[in-house]
Amino acid sequence: xxxxxxxxxxxxGGASGIGEAISIAFAERGIFVTVVDLSEEKGKxxxxxxxxxxxxxxxxxxxxxxxxxxxxVTNSGELSxxxxxxxxxxxxxxxxxxxxGIYTALPLHNDPTDGSxxxxxxxxxxxxxxxxxxxxxxxxxxxxxxxxxxxxxxxxAGLYPSFADPAYSASKGGVVLFTRSLLPYRRxxxxxxxxxxxxxQLWYLCCEVAADNANLEFVExxxxxxxxxxxxxxxxxxxxxxxxxxxxxxxxxxxxxxxCCLWITNRRGLEYWPTPAEEAKYRVSSSxxxxxFLQIDPLxxxxxxxxxxxxxxxxxxxxxxxxxxxxxxxxxxxxxNHVLVKILYAGVNASDVNFSSGRYFSGxxxxxxxxxxxxxxxxxxxIIAAVGDAVNDLKIGSAAAxxxxxxxxxxxxxxxxxxxxxxxxxxxxxAMLTSGLTASIALEQAAQMxxxxxxxxxxxxxxxxxxxxxxxxxxxxxxxxxxxxKDKAMFLKSLGVDRVINYRDEDIKTVLKKEFPxxxxxxxxxxxxxxxxxCLNALAIFGRLVVIGMISQYQxxxxxxxxxxxxxxxxxxxxxxxxxxxxxxxYSHLWRQHLDKLYNAYSSGMLKVSxxxxxxxxxxxxxxxxxxxxxxxxxxxxxVSIDTTLCQAVAKL
Length: 653
Prior knowledge:
Blueprint: E1 8-12, H1 17-27, E2 32-37, H2 40-54, E3 66-70, H3 76-90, E4 95-98, H4 119-144, E5 148-153, H5 166-180, E6 190-197, H6 201-204, H7 213-223, H8 229-234, H9 241-253, E7 261-265, E8 269-273, H10 276-279, E9 306-312, H11 319-322, E10 323-329, E11 338-347, H12 352-356, E12 374-375, E13 380-387, E14 399-402, E15 411-415, E16 420-421, H13 427-446, E17 454-457, H14 465-474, E18 478-483, H15 486-494, E19 499-502, H16 508-515, E20 520-525, H17 530-538, E21 539-547, H18 568-575, E22 578-581, H19 591-603, E23 616-617, H20 622-629, E24 639-641, H21 644-652
Parallel strand pairs: 1-2, 1-4, 2-3, 4-5, 5-6, 6-7, 17-18, 17-20, 18-19, 20-21, 21-22, 23-24
Antiparallel strand pairs: 7-8, 9-10, 9-12, 11-13, 11-15, 11-24, 13-14, 14-16
């Protein structure tokens, strides 16, 4: 999230210590702040400082640039009222800092009370109130349908034990696991993180320990105002407040951080916990080094003397007319540094018709027909059936994905360097290949997508559109999606799209002009033709339009017909706009990295992968699948099951 004037933040425990420092840091960026604290005197003082700083950014406001709300965070009614007042004043909530906390160092066995003013109070302030405040913040962000960031204040004592105060350590440990368990909210654009500083001086001087005036004397008597200097020396000294604020701002601005705990120490600086090594002990990762691969018994893979594949034997934009099913010998042994893959699922793409017409060979010069016949299909997942000499890192029976020409086949022989190991040869993985990788890499590289932008996806209910809308939402953006049909519109709403435009019920141009008069920041475009014209006209100042395809132009009588755009230079120049093309093969160096990201997001539940429900089985159905895709009726990724017998065996595993 980009910290900029006009955002609003609510900070509990905002009148002193870390809460005060973060609140002032927000004011220095023109952010409206609601200070929630039990101390009325300090709260009003900090609020006045924030208003003075904010005056540099905001003038002639009809509402205050900062609020103070006196609140005992353990009182659910008072806490709810604080949020309500913030929302009433600022119309939404962008950032919530749950900072209020207390510390009680009285040994448990020496507590003469029932714990109501000591360890029970610590649990209620540090953990129960944080949970309640987080719920209120999430609901506010969901209601506004815009991205938000929540930071829950924990401590190093939440990562390892604090012998001085077990109750405090228990409360902060609870905050850590509570926060990390909220990772799925990232799907809605809401990121929840924890800040775990080791020892800041204000904390140890008991500036925030008093739950109320009645307990102040008790706390001061039993804790005192000094810390053992030996302990301070052991931990490397007190942490500068500036370091804590820097950590908080990093968690807010870095859109890749969700469910993270930032540990802050003088000894090690800013460090995320758990470390990758620690996390690998319990979480199944899709990275090459730690991914748990599905392994099939090699004896279950029968190698025939020949296999079937689809080849293009005449150039034609009509895929069915251009292709034939042919038999090819399955020669063994496999050549050195090559791998034989038994194909289970193959993906269908709009560009199959460009391939069959020879469009992808047009830049090679000469007579394109001389390349005939060539193997068809762009992507597949399957099982490694055999390996050649010098292939040591790939095992027979393990799952693999391929993105080379020739995937419409029962078997493929490919160089081992082109193999993408995967955890399981699921059809969902096929969707992550051409479709998912195009969305992930194009939005990062060509669109340069950040957060807080308005992003529009055309043909959003298709194979790549489903990924683009979710990745844009996960990035903290407002997402507009176009589609044709009520079923597709419902599907996109289920993915969290903010505004679905069903062109069968609404005019896209009218909606964009009326609801988005300032224009669209990023447009992910795959339709072409009139849709491209409309998108170009709807682009905002500094906007970026990324062309990943033009499906409406693929099926013409003569194939891919170039379009003419007079005046495009003048249009782009006038608004400092960018139109960028994106062709996935030119980004092959990023495939493995982004495939791991997609699979991790899918495995953790952050990313949904939808497959079109229409079933296509066997190579005989590939042409049907390609034609079905071009009808515009598909929802999600269209996949063909090549070998149903082995597919069923894998599904059971």
